[in-house]
Amino acid sequence: MLVTVKYFASIREALGTGIESLETSATTLGALRDELLTRSNAHAEALARSRTVRLALNQVMSDESAALSAGAEVAFFPPVTGG
Amino acid sequence: MHRRVTVQTEDFDLSTEVTQLRAGQPGVGAVCAFVGTVRDQNEGTQVSTLELEHYPGMTEKAIEAMIDEAQRRFSILSARVVHRVGLLQPMDQIVLVAVSSAHRGQSYQACEFLMDYLKSHAPFWKKEQTPEGARWVDARVSDDAAAARWGLSAQAKVEF
């Protein structure tokens, strides 16, 4: 299935892109992250589990156990620093 | 009904916002407003500019959900949040949270709740320009602690 993945802030900069569309068979956000980690060295570094990375599914803060479905919008970003 | 959430590059005017928040609401007896501004230093380093990035769409929805939650927790009449994005300079205003209620206690509390919630959960990121180059601002442990006082964990979902 096709999903859209968005990256923000330091993760976006490290990957050199803010958005990618990809075909995946992952059924959870955690499995999608596993797939992304193998995509490039930059992905492996930026999305490493040793880092604090926040996840959103369809624009709602989420976690790795969340179920993925076709057409989903997933985002990976560092802890937020607004205000 | 006034607009509750705006993310914009332009500056905002506190007086105008408070006037709009109170318009046509004679039951308002208290307005509490917080304005966040850009400092010229952070963690001992001079800051010349601040660039704010956000997640268009999610940011607005997340803050709307935070206001809904504030309405559930406190007896407030209305709330307004304006957050700027883009390139900002020291002295610039960044964020406004304004809350109205019948009596002061509820608007004080709701204002602090909204600000703590926003700082720890709204998808904004700051990048500051310093003499040593640009750097992304690290999330503060104290901000997560402030949110935790309200029972909001760092990874808690903002439902909407």
Q: What value does the average pLDDT of chain A take?
A: 97
Could you give me the name of the CATH homologous superfamily of chain A?
Answer: Beta-grasp domain
CATH topology of chain A: Ubiquitin-like (UB roll)
Q: End-to-end distance of chain B, in Å?
A: 19 Å
> What is the count of helical runs of chain B?
4
Low-confidence stretches of chain B: none
The neighbouring-strand order within the major sheet of chain B is 1-6-8-2
Helix content of chain B: 25-40%
- Report the sheet-strand fraction of chain A: 25-35%
Tertiary shape of chain A? globular
Brief overview:
With 83 residues, chain A is α+β, with helices and mostly antiparallel strands.
Tell me what the structure shows.
The complex is a heterodimer of chains A (83) and B (160). Chain A is of the alpha+beta class and 83 residues long. Chain A has a single domain (2-77), classed as Beta-grasp domain (Ubiquitin-like (UB roll), Roll). Helix content of chain A is 27%, strand content 28%. Chain A has 3 helices and 5 strands. Chain A has a 5-stranded mixed sheet. Chain A is globular. Chain B has a 4-stranded mixed sheet with strand order 1-6-8-2, sandwiched between helices. Chain B has a 4-stranded antiparallel sheet with strand order 7-5-9-10, with no helix packed on it. A two-stranded antiparallel ribbon of chain B has the order 3-4. In chain B, α2 (58-73) runs antiparallel to α3 (104-121) and α3 packs across α4. The mean pLDDT of chain B is 94. Chain B has helices at 14-22, 58-73, 104-121, 141-148; strands at 5-8, 30-37, 41-42, 45-46, 49-54, 76-84, 86-88, 93-101, 124-130, 133-136. Chain B has a single domain (5-148), classed as Aldehyde Oxidoreductase, domain 3, CATH 3.90.1170. Helices cover 32% and strands 34% of the residues of chain B. Chain B has 4 helices and 10 strands; from the N terminus they run βαββββαβββαββα. Chain B is an alpha+beta fold and 160 residues long. The A-B interface holds A 6, 8-10, 52, 54, 56, 59-63, 75, 77-83 and B 36, 52-55, 57-58, 61-62, 83, 94-95, 115, 118-127, 136-140, 143, 154-160.
